[in-house]
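Milestone M4 deliverable, item 7.
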Amino acid sequence: MDADTSSLLRRLLAERPVAALATLHRGEPAVSMVPFVLPAQDTRLFIHVSGLATHTRDLLEHPRVGLLVTAADGGPWPAQALPRVSLQADAVPLPREGGDYAAAKALYLARFPDSAQTFELGDFGMFALQPVSARLIGGFGRAHSLVAEGLSTWLREPA
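Output delivered:
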């Protein structure tokens, strides 16, 4: 993958505020929308979700999920060639008492300050999504798959 394509796709994770989250719900695929944050130099994405939401129960029952982040439509790309990042990830709940929770919360609030009130609600929790594979599409004929160290290295690159 060339540097321009890599940077374009990495910027999607840094700049786009929401992703489509795919979970397994009662044996059927289900997709919802989640705000997320990917900290610099980290490979995990963090989401803050309500325990009342079906996708949260799905995360706990079947932690392997899909996450799709796309470029905004209306840009220089035709709809079929929108740059996008599709991740397969393992969801791990973060205990409120842990250091990871506090760090993830601070990063999440820095990106989504309007969500501060949801951290006061007892049913919301943080999850870390640890990617295990990625499919990166930079446009027509610009598709790449990443796993293992290649994926970790790419996720840590600056946007």
